[in-house]
Amino acid sequence: MKILVINGPNLNMVGIREKNIYGDISYSSIINMIEEYAKEKDIEVICRQSNHEGDLVDWIQEAYFEKYDGIIINPGAYTHTSIALLDAIKAISPLPVIEVHLSDINERDVFRKLSYISEACFDRVIGLGAKGYLVALDKLIKD
Ligand code: DQA
Fold first, then answer.
1. From the alpha carbon of 108, which atom of ligand 1 is closest?
2. Which domain holds residue 31?
3. Is the CB of 79 inside a 6 Å radius of any atom of ligand 1?
4. What is the reported pLDDT for 143?
5. Is 116 labeled as catalytic in the residue annotation?
6. Is the CB of 51 under 6 A from ligand 1?
7. Which of 51, 83, 113, 115 has CB 3.0 to 4.6 Å from 9, enough for a Cys bridge?
8. Pairing of strands 70-74, 44-49
């Protein structure tokens, strides 16, 4: 099983940015945690991060062409703005995509409640911090 983990803008700043919201675990520690967990479960994970919307679209398409079994995506602020990401996820259906957010986007600013990608995602995990990526992996394994 091969899973692509995509993180969007400013997620590389976790551990530095708004620690009261995102905690003080660094981005590299989150990636190590995901990779360790995947190794335990005997699955292959590739983790990518970009601050650029088009990169995220390219990687979603790549997951389809390279025959990944699923995607875990935290699109950061593009969650609330990007129809391009929604279209990309719809385009690769039925490849399962799970939306992850470190914080509980329903309990923050009103504009964060809207996720354009949600309707095309197989599931979502929000507000569990870094552990959310592992919960998402479990959901894909069980799928
Ligand atoms: C986030 C929530 C978004 O609203 C925000 O723009 C982020 C991170 C999260 O993981 O909680 O950059 O996706």
1. 4
2. 2-142
3. yes
4. 75
5. no
6. no
7. 51
8. unpaired
Most informative mutation of 34, 78, 85, 103 for ligand 1 (most atoms within 8 A of CB) = 103
Q: Which of 60, 90, 96, 94 is nearest to 75 (CA)?
A: 60
22 has catalytic annotation = yes
* Given the residues 27, 68, 78, 101, the one annotated as active site: 101
Report the CATH number that the domain containing residue 50 is assigned in CATH: 3.40.50.9100
Residue 127 CA to ligand 1 center (angstroms) comes to: 10
Look up the pTM and report it.
0.97
Question: Comparing C-alpha atoms, which of 84, 101, 124, 118 is closest to residue 14?
Answer: 101
Ligand 1: nearest atom to the Cα of 80: 4
The pair of structure tokens assigned to 29 is 């520690």
Mean pLDDT by 10 residues, the chain (143 residues): 98 97 97 98 98 98 98 98 98 98 97 98 98 98 87
Residues shown for the chain:
143
Tell me how many degrees the CA angle 48-53-57 measures, rounded to the nearest 5: 70
Q: How many domains does the chain fold into?
A: 1
How high is the pLDDT of residue 119?
98
